[in-house]
Amino acid sequence: MIQLQARQIVASIPAYDLASLVLEPVTIISGSGLKHVVLAQDPQLVEYLDAAPRLVERLASEGVFQNRGWRILKRGETAYQGERVLYDCLAIRVASSNSSIAAKF
To answer: In the predicted model, is pLDDT for residue 1 greater than 50?
Structure first.
């Protein structure tokens, strides 16, 4: 009689230091003929996104906007009357020069 023995292999997943990862919820309101409005708690992020070129266009078409270390991910969108759209987003940035995390983002 043949007996087979199987060993369970546990795959190693590298652990990253997430202490330097910055996550900010962001709401962006846009509309036809309107300048977009950015709602967030971080005043520097609001200032940056207020002046970001093609922010709304990229969120609408690609679902992501990335520039100057920030990655803005669209989590959802809601259409309202008057061709107005609310984008629910998450802003992600690496605060330090941790290259292992920065390479992933």
So the answer is: yes
- pTM listed for this prediction: 0.73
Name the residue with higher pLDDT: 3 or 20.
20
The total of other beta-carbon atoms located within 10 Å of residue 21's CB is 16
Could you tell me which residues come within 8 angstroms of residue 36 by beta carbon, excluding any fewer than 6 positions away? 28, 29, 30, 50, 55, 56
Q: How far apart are the C-alpha atoms of 20 and 102, rounded to whole Å? A: 10
Decide if 75 is inside a domain. Answer: yes
Domain total in the chain = 1
CA-based nearest residue to 40, from 54, 56, 22, 28:
28
Task: Tell me how far apart the alpha carbons of residues 105 and 102 are, in angstroms, rounded to a whole number.
Answer: 5
H-type alpha helices, 16-79: 43-50, 55-61
Residue range 46-102, pLDDT digits in tens: 999 999 989 999 999 999 999 888 999 999 999 999 999 999 999 999 886 544 444
Range of 82's domain? Answer: 18-104
